[in-house]
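Dissemination and training. As part of the outreach component of the grant, students in the summer workshop were shown how a complex can be specified as a set of sequence lines and then modelled as a single object. The example used during the hands-on session is reproduced here so that future cohorts can follow it. Participants entered these lines:
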Amino acid sequence: MRMRRGIGFIALLGAFAAPASVGKVYVRWTQQSVPAPKTLGVNDLVIPWNEEANSLLEVAKKQGYRVYFETTLEQALAAAESGAKEGAAGIILKSSASATAQLEEKERSLRSVYPRLKILVLADGGKQPKMRGWMVFKKNGILQVSSPTSQPWLDSNLAMLRYEREFQSGQTPLYTFSWDLSDGLMKEQGPSPADYALAIAEAGAFRADLILELHERQEKGLASGDQETLSDWEQVKRTIEFCERENHGAEEARVGVLTNNYELSYEALNLMARHNIPYRVLQPGEVKARDLKGFDVVIAFVALGKELTEDIRGFAEQGGVAVLVNLPGAYPWVSSAPTKTSAHSTTYSVGKGRVIELGEAVTDPETFAQDVRRLMVREQIPVSLWNSLTTLVTAYAGEKAGETIVELVNYDEETTQVQVRVKGTYGSARYESPERGCCERLKVSQENGFTEFVVPDVMIGGRVHLEPAMSQPKEETKPKH
Amino acid sequence: MTCMPWNETLAAALLAWIPLLVAPAQETKIPLVHKTKYIMGTVYEIAAYNESPQHASQAIDKAFAEIARLDEVMSNYKPESDLSRLNRNGHFHAERLPADLYRAIEESLRYSKVSGGKFDITVAPLVDLWKAALRGERSLTATEVEKLRACIGYEKIELIPPDRVEFHSTCMRIDLGSIGKGYAVDRAVEILRANGIKSALIDAGQSTIYGIGAPPGKSAWEVHLRDPSNRADPVVMLSENSVSTSEQTAASLLGNETAGHIIDPETGRPLETKYALSVVAKTGTASDALSTTLLLVGPEKGKAIVKEIADAAAIWISAAGETETVTTGPEIRLMGKTAVEATKIEGKAQSVVPASPRENR
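and obtained this result:
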């Protein structure tokens, strides 16, 4: 079971040294020959800790890279000792969900013994981002499952990263994944530049750092200077350059999710992310009543103690909607008759709001996510999309007061037009992307406290800068590419 | 800019949560190529075995290109599509159409007749009204529903061979969502066959699945059918035939007022049925159209319809595990531990509305 406590505080100790940027790409490298950083488009290499790691470190350092050893907890001490001696920039700790306590202990001890090494923790559970189908490949054939028409199934890392952000608050979430090579062509040729670009764009849009695994073919091609590989890699480099940026503001959330059990809540969180529901994970042990203010909906996956029950009641009394997932109990609101009873849930009016008790675990997270979306206050939804079922969106406060940054990630191979509605009145919208650089002005219109605009062609990743009506930029910057 | 249409991008990966076991593919040495593409508001998947993965990949790309071409013809979402043109201009004026669109409408009318009008490609305006009302964007009055009924009715579509169509209503428009994917699957099958592919599975967003040949060393493609009971586990083996599934949108877990995407045009209300329905037929067009038809008419009338069709089979299955099956050839096996005894349930007089994925939320 993946339950973390306290690690955020430990990591916070090193927060002052943590990079202010997000969307950083580290490339995992295994070949003995290393191309120049200019060729790869990154300055940070990750070398899996093994007996050849030191010699590879030497080669990479000569090329000018900052090098990190990636290691298991068991080998972390040896890797750190060697890394400190040989001039590695840091250590990246891999861990399984079940080894949280050991991870915390190891991280603490390494920081203390090797204060000059950057100690980073790799999030568990990253997956290859993609729009996927439903076929299940198995030995001797394919298993297929029918259903009514299904919408695009997007494999994204957004839910995992939102969880990590809460429990690893001192470090920008860092994750990795392995490519799915079950397809014959993919196994032979490796991921396409668009596959790599999507992985990088996703990390940037969701404000995380990524260790990018390269297919052996690409790694060898880059190492040997193969022209086709280098040409393909240009798209990847543009996306790397586009995604790393300063992190100025947090994502606005309208839904709070009380959980410290990743497995229990993951599917619901995943589908809520898929439905572009802006939520924030809250640690039950640390949340206060004031933390719930500002949410339209609070969902609880963990048992409510006395204090939290009171906080939930207070939240509902002020007009919020609390959803308790499979948490039967003698709550104060149960003393009055429910206002609605359905096959799955019971609703109680509490002050200006209500508490909905779902009498079972979330067995249908798709329907659950759609339900949560309907519970949100329409006028408060920070950002919505139309007609772009393959796109995820997140919105953040910008650098300047009143500025908002909208990040778009399109998981489809085809370029898509995206219609966007953002809460607030903005005078200008400027769009930038890896392909077209910065920035293209978009036509905006205002309607009932929202600003609407159309992004004509999101290829993979895109970013819209929204500025208040009074501070429009004086001139457009020219595209870089 | 005016306010955008409120068909927001919220409908997502239905069943994305199902834990499916994925194991490395094929013991066989024949490579498998698997590709996905987002077209017609859903994800099409094609998996093909071929000695040359490059050749299979190219064939799949051609099949996807054909589906994308059909989307340009049949989309009611794209204003420049031939269907949109028909919906704009076809009122008391015969509009000349591309062969694919004419054929798809012709096939639709065939199933409208078979179902006694329960399957109807003209009912979309009523669905839109219902959904807007339930989203709180507007009120829904009996007068409005009545007014819209004048726009609905397959018998008001006139086919003028070989390629023209005219609407005998001033406000009619059609939506091919309940048959278009099946039609596209059939065209993709033709393209794959023409390119020498002899073993492939084509899937249109899980709702229509066609098997060409069989995987190496097998006699057919194994397809598990939608099972709301999670215990009957119906399975069909596909080879040169198709299966389609229809089911009403799941009810809210948290007590919200929601509308399913299948509406009864007679009452103007969402279809209420406890069944999920899967039907096997020789073509994707047939299985797609039949799936909506049979869900609407229910098991009793549905069985009678299937009995008139060669090489077809259907299964209705409820969350409680009640099943009703009928076949004129293909076998639907129940692989689960509990095979609940069939219960006769009267089919309600209901009609289907093609779901537009972009309008789900």
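The longest strand of chain B covers residues 32-39. Students were then asked to discuss how this feature might be tested experimentally.
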